[in-house]
Amino acid sequence: MAGLVRIGSDDLEVDVLPEIGGRVHRIRAFGHDLLRTPGSLDRHRDEPVFWGAYPMAPWCNRLSTNATAVGDRTVELASNFTDGTAIHGQVAPVPWTEDGPGRFVVRGGGNGWPWRYAVEEQLLLDGPVLTLGLRLTNLDTVAMPGGLGLHPWFRKPLEIRVPARTVLASNLDPAAGRQPVGGRLDLRRAGPVPVDLDGSWLDFDEDVIELRWPDLGIRARLRWEATAPTSIAIASPRALDGVAVEPQTHLPDGLRRWLSGEPGGLTVIEPGASLELAIELAVERSG
């Protein structure tokens, strides 16, 4: 397919679309698709939020569209989602450039985000292990708040284990606070993903999530490492045949949280410095 870059091993096959947000179109393990992958590449352009796995930068999750002063600059973003927020950053729908084997880059800034930046994505395959590294670099002359994330839509039916002690129960409610996990929000024992979750999990006993596809006989371990505290956003819309499991370096409404000194805000990136996030997906047959 035109514009598609394929990276393959004996166990895994990964298709990337540099021209549509540097996104992963497909992860195929032992011949089975693990992502919500559309039959046509055009669906990524028509509905960029709901397919594959895409990088999020220079912020992730939701930010307010209200004009917000940051020093002598103003953040004033346009809404790109039905709830009226600016969601998932600026780089998911735009063209990236291939810059070596498994490496893709994009530059951004403007459109309501008053700092210049670059994002790099590096994909590596080693047998049944995919490593996806992201780097957000401040190209401006002053410090920039920023955030990084990856938004994979894993196909249903899916079982999950999330060893987190704390949860932000709603990503949609700017006033939502942290609370101990409990009831349907306690995902510390592996089981089917509850329907209609849209929250963020944090305070992990270990930085790993277990994913299981019983119908495919496949399981995976998703690990992450970042230069900022990381949470996992999970969304499981009833009407969608996918579950989002998203490592993110800040919570929803991260600009406000940072400006007010709350935990979970954007990270300050000095000129020339970078914020980094590495995600590892290790798959195996479960019998």
Describe the biggest sheet? 9 strands, antiparallel
Q: Between the first and last Cα atoms, what is the distance in angstroms?
A: 33 Å
Structural class: mainly beta
Strand order of the largest sheet: 10-11-12-13-26-22-21-16-19
Helical content, roughly?
A: under 10%
How many individual β-strands?
26
Give me the oligomer status: single chain
CATH architecture: Distorted Sandwich
Helices and strands, in order, run as EEEEHEEEEEEEEEEEEEEEEEEEEHEE
With helices defined by DSSP (H or I, 4 residues minimum), what is the helix count?
2
Kindly give the count of domains. 1
**What is the name of the CATH class?**
Mainly Beta
Strand content: over 45%
**Which regions have little confidence, pLDDT < 50, spanning 5+ residues?**
none
Per the CATH scheme, the topology name is: Beta-galactosidase, Chain A, domain 5
| Radius of gyration, whole Å | 18 Å
Please tell me about this protein's structure.
This protein is mostly beta strands and 287 residues long. The chain has a single domain, classed as Distorted Sandwich (Beta-galactosidase, Chain A, domain 5). 4% of the residues lie in helices and 48% in strands. It is built from 2 helices and 26 strands. It has helices at residues 42-46, 254-259; strands at residues 5-8, 12-17, 23-29, 32-33, 53-56, 62-63, 68-70, 73-75, 86-87, 97-98, 103-110, 113-126, 129-138, 144-146, 149-155, 159-161, 164-168, 178-180, 191-192, 198-204, 208-213, 218-226, 231-235, 242-248, 267-269, 274-285. The strands form 6 sheets. Strands 10-11-12-13-26-22-21-16-19 form a 9-stranded antiparallel beta sheet, with no helix packed on it. A 7-stranded antiparallel beta sheet has the order 5-15-24-23-20-17-18, with no helix packed on it. A hairpin with a 5-residue loop joins strand 2 and strand 3. The longest helix has 6 residues, at 254-259. It is globular, with a radius of gyration of 18 Å. The two termini are 33 Å apart. The relative contact order is 0.18.
